[in-house]
# Entry
Amino acid sequence: MSNIKEVPSPQEIVIQNEYGRIIVMDSITFSDKRNNSGDVLVGASFCGILSIRWPLRVNPKGVICHAAGPGLERAGENGLFALEAAKIPGATAETMSCRIADGQDMYNNGVVDRVNDSAHLLGVSSGMSIKEAAQRMLEYWPVLPEVYKPCVVAHESRHGKVMAMGSVTFIETEHRGRVVCAGSHFGQTSAAYSSRFDLAGVMCNDAGFCKDRSGVSGLKVLDEVNIPGAAVSVYTARIGDGFSTYSDGIISAYNLAARKVGISEGITAKVAAELMLKAYSLKN
# Structure
């Protein structure tokens, strides 16, 4: 049995910048593991449901194919609906404006025929050059939804408030003078967030301490700004759950500023929080 040669599937990057890449190919079926969600794929196949299966696998920023007629029941363009279902901007090149199976001719000379809703929202329209349409798709940055940031008052006394939150990234300037009980680990990155604010204290999870005690390495960072910091054992409180840090946590590590206000290993986070609040109120 003779060996059957593989069909070459070249891709040419025509633009690469901070937004991603525009990649041109003679067939959109050449889309593969070389591609990613930062790519606009210009492939000179017909834009049918069958052809679009290939680029859908790599979730690109945009897809432009050939209208190829578009023929009976506009079958040469019905892949635009599949792209829209995945919220991927899609467009076709007008049949007579460029050669099919010639990606460079389509990119350089093609004119847009039809677009899906996602492409329309980017300003891609019929009659526009394929080059401009690809550029608009490339420069589109999707708007990311806001991360839900639950933050509640876990405790309040005459000395102040204890805030429970999932992550130290939720800390705001309005939390000045409060104790923050977060579900974060107490590594360097957590301290980088929390050390920016004037807080009565910070408690996070020790994350099992980790290699080189990196799970609590942020405690020293808080000492540099004289904020009491303490970690609770991962075996006593759920990591990622600030309310559990406060209500269930047992102190497993602390910094020098925390020791000065009376915090020690083995006490509850509830007791530690009150000590932090009291010390802050006396100082201020």
Q: What stands out?
A: Residues 192 and 209 are 18 Å apart (CA to CA). The chain is about 25% helix and 25% strand. The mean pLDDT is 96.
